[in-house]
Amino acid sequence: MRKQADYIPGDLESIKHAAKKEPYYKGMEIIKGLNYEVEDYIQYFPCFTGSQTISRYLSFYECYKSTLGKAGHLAEVGIYKGASMLFFAKMLQIFEPNSFTQVHGFDWFLGNAPTEGEENIVPNADMESYERLMALINAQGLDNIVKVHKLDVITELTAFFEKYPHLQFKMVFLDAGMYEVVKAALPFFWSRLVKGGILILDQYNYDIAPGETRAVKEFLPDVEINTFPWGWMPTAYIVK
How many CB atoms lie within 10 A of CB 39? Predict the structure, then answer.
């Protein structure tokens, strides 16, 4: 469940779970006072992780599972702290230990840059240190699976794919939420998404980030868009 400081609440979809926030964060404060060790949070994470967070990763797992046997890499646009990207990498360790499949993450590490019509998104929020993320990846020996590309998706994808024209994807997760980023990313990643591959949308049909829906409707006006019956975020996915 996201901290309110990261966004300005809207009056539609974002209020559906608002009543859960206060007890959730009160519970977190109690947990912080119980003096667990870091190892406990890692090894026994279901003791501490909320059901909505678990539903998020179940959504990722179900999408990924449906791509097993298809050629292509995994990609995430807008990686923040790297949680979903590293989850993807660990699924590759479990399910595809002998394949060449990798996870490619794209982010400029400068936080949000909302434009007109995205007033609920706080500028410069969702910012993470590139150096800290790379240290986390290297500490777990995942640098051979996870490739982080520090670039501006809006202006630098052309040059990136000219350098790596062979890259194809079987699963792409758009996690930026802002119109200009999604608009710029969609043509590149959709054209490189293999048939039967999955495009995951984190904030489709969501009042906090309306730009994602707008960009998808403009570029893919006729596709069937699915949702997760048990899920929260991501909110939707498309099978190519």
Answer: 8
Taking only the tens place, the pLDDT of each residue in 163-175 is 999 999 999 999 9
Nearby residues of 141 by Cβ (< 8 Å), 6 or more positions away = none
User: Which residues of the chain, if any, have pLDDT below 50?
Assistant: none
Q: Which residues pair with 172 in a beta bridge?
A: 75, 199
- Cβ(77)–Cβ(106) under 8 Å? yes
Q: Where in 115-234 does DSSP place strands (E)?
A: 146-150, 169-174, 193-201
219 domain-assigned: yes
CA 55, 57, 62, 66: dihedral to nearest 10 degrees? 160
pLDDT for residue 13: 84
103 lies in a domain? Answer: yes
Cα–Cα distance, 102 to 122 (Å, whole number): 32
Check residue 4 and give its pLDDT. 53
Structural contact between residues 197 and 70, judged by C-beta atoms closer than 8 angstroms: yes
- Residue 230 CA, chain-centre distance (Å), reads 17
Concatenating the DSSP letter of every residue in 167-185 gives: --EEEEEE----HHHHHHH
Q: What phi and psi values does residue 51 have, to the nearest 5 degrees? A: -65, -30
For the purposes of burial, counting CB atoms within 10 Å of the CB of 130, is it exposed (0-12), middle (13-18) or buried (19 or more)? middle
| Chain centroid, CA 120 distance in Å | 19
Q: Do 206 and 13 touch, CB atoms closer than 8 A?
A: yes
Write out the residue range of the structural domain in which residue 94 sits. 51-239
The CATH number for 84's domain is 3.40.50.150
CA dihedral (192, 145, 56, 213) positive or negative:
negative
